[in-house]
Amino acid sequence: MSRLQTDSELEAYLDEALTPGEMSEIESAMRDEPEVAQRLMAIISRRDAGMHTVGEIWRRHRVSCPTRAQLGSHLLNAASKEEVDYIKFHLEEVGCRLCAANLKDLERQQAETEATVATRREKYFQSSAGYLGSDNKE
Questions:
Q1: Per-residue pLDDT averaged across 6-31, rounded?
Q2: Is residue 87 a contact partner of residue 70, using CB atoms and an 8 Å limit?
Q3: For the chain, what are the domain ranges?
């Protein structure tokens, strides 16, 4: 029998805010323990009825998540020490999957941009190389 999940863990499960291992643990508990599935259904019913807790609103609106611009500043080493510390804490300790995915996307975009700039620079150099060293005067 698995450990009993808290309501906040079940709410985080619904918001897909848990690690894959934790998500899997709750899915197994729902199959093995009807009580867990019933509690999850009660949370869904409460949400559908428009009743919300402060924690639920906080998680749903991702109040603690840094913005994409803040993640970009972090990636470019332009963030303040306090922002860097918080972003590291948020990614490494809290384990926010949404912010980790955002950061990975920004890293991918940065790599693509750097590759595009390097290719463009090389093309410009190749197209003008004959003119730079030429003594031709017309």
A1: 87
A2: yes
A3: 1-63, 65-130
